Amino acid sequence: MNHPKAGAMRRKPDNDNTYLFLTDINSILVSGEDTNGEFCVVHCSVRENDGPPLHVHGSEDESFYVLDGEIEMTLGDDTFSVRSGEYVFAPRGIPHTFKVRSEQARFLVTAYPAGFDSFVKELGVPYEEGMEANMEPPTPELLQKLIEVSKKYNITYPGL
């Protein structure tokens, strides 16, 4: 396969690439546009006891690299702790979720191929310093929007 080369780049989390995504603060460090759709990298900052509902990605594999903090990861039938410096690979088609067990956790999610970055942009809102996430349980309207947008990206929720 002959792909045009993506340009070299350097990027950090800032207001141009950061979104309030449900209750997380997610910064798109590498987008699908940067890699011809091959992969994306999202920096996630998540508070204690937060995490997504159990879900399945039908179109992409994901990897998680914890920069700091601790998350409890469920991947298929296994639940285990993932701490700073540890890596987890979550293949497409396997139900997974996580809960942050430290006060906060920061980690990188890499998705192959890209698509998770577009999901974050579509469901999130541009982040501005000082914005706070609503920590109340999601409203039925927000859950419906999550399910509808997820369908576009081939993400399903076995428990919803």
From TrEMBL:
Signal peptide: none annotated. InterPro entries: Cupin_2, QDO-like, RmlC-like_jellyroll, RmlC_Cupin_sf. Pfam families: Cupin_2 (PF07883). It comes from the Bacteria. Residues 46-109 form the Cupin type-2 domain. CDD domains: cupin_QDO_N_C. This is Quercetin 2,3-dioxygenase. It comes from Paenibacillus artemisiicola.
